[in-house]
């Protein structure tokens, strides 16, 4: 379905939790945020989404602005626009619960922005091969996007991708080139709001999953020293495509994480209730 | 939140649980999708693959789930269907496989 979020309409897929026997109270809710340019909510729909609903978790998947079947305005792609869309989406869905937000790659940057700027809405943050919106990230992004914009317009490059990475990736690369050439996304994504390098803006529990062979794994020491409640997992012999290539491992880690924090939250509610009744 | 399945089912009472009728249904949904890309000449049969033959993106398959819901309501759970498939199986998915799943779902809800 399509939902109005601010000035655009956003494509959402909502999978309600399968009610499980013996389950008490409201189910937890997870929001999955996909990556930039070659990505859409389909990456979750065909990996984690249905499995999480079957495990008793409400699942919200949506296409970021400019992607999939959401609107693609010409401008308006600083990271805070993506974060505001996420919160507008929760409002439009009438979501009162704190959400477990999960972001893959750039989706993790958006998720981290939401955790930093809307802490009341977020129960936990999971980053899959992602970097929060810090100054360094803006530099990585600016370089990467400039290169993509320059390279992906060439048929020879697309042909090389087809030969070496398969027809599907080549097709998605063509979509990416179309987005970059019809919007200001490439110049804007990295040029918006940032959080301090010390990650002090992120206060909720954080699960961070990396591939050992990805450059992003260098953040592990910072995460572990800077974030008070953080669990980092490094998957051996794995690059950036964790979600697609290590779906099962990611699913198990994340289900355990949500279950653990949902129980803790219910315990805390119970405690508050007991206090209030005294 | 979601399409009112009973309302839609009432408006479209002619759902038939045989493979030929379901193939015609799904081919119609696919033509609508393909029209958005300016492709209306595609031949669609049981052996047609979504990715290689029709060049659909995976997000188009998600859209197809919406069309299936409008047509069949809660009787056909596409999310459940894809949950059992690996990514490479989804990429190799044929129209016939989806038709068989829909027919099976319709028959089992009829029986129940």
Automatic annotation (TrEMBL), chain A:
<dbReference type="GO" id="GO:0016787">
    <property type="term" value="F:hydrolase activity"/>
</dbReference>
<keyword id="KW-0378">Hydrolase</keyword>
<dbReference type="InterPro" id="IPR029058">
    <property type="entry name" value="AB_hydrolase_fold"/>
</dbReference>
<dbReference type="InterPro" id="IPR000073">
    <property type="entry name" value="AB_hydrolase_1"/>
</dbReference>
<dbReference type="GO" id="GO:0016020">
    <property type="term" value="C:membrane"/>
</dbReference>
<dbReference type="InterPro" id="IPR050266">
    <property type="entry name" value="AB_hydrolase_sf"/>
</dbReference>
<protein>
    <submittedName>
        <fullName>Hydrolase</fullName>
    </submittedName>
</protein>
<feature type="domain" description="AB hydrolase-1">
    <location>
        <begin position="28"/>
        <end position="144"/>
    </location>
</feature>
<dbReference type="Pfam" id="PF00561">
    <property type="entry name" value="Abhydrolase_1"/>
</dbReference>
From TrEMBL, chain B:
<dbReference type="Pfam" id="PF00550">
    <property type="entry name" value="PP-binding"/>
</dbReference>
<feature type="domain" description="Carrier">
    <location>
        <begin position="21"/>
        <end position="106"/>
    </location>
</feature>
<dbReference type="InterPro" id="IPR009081">
    <property type="entry name" value="PP-bd_ACP"/>
</dbReference>
<protein>
    <submittedName>
        <fullName>Acyl carrier protein</fullName>
    </submittedName>
</protein>
<dbReference type="InterPro" id="IPR036736">
    <property type="entry name" value="ACP-like_sf"/>
</dbReference>
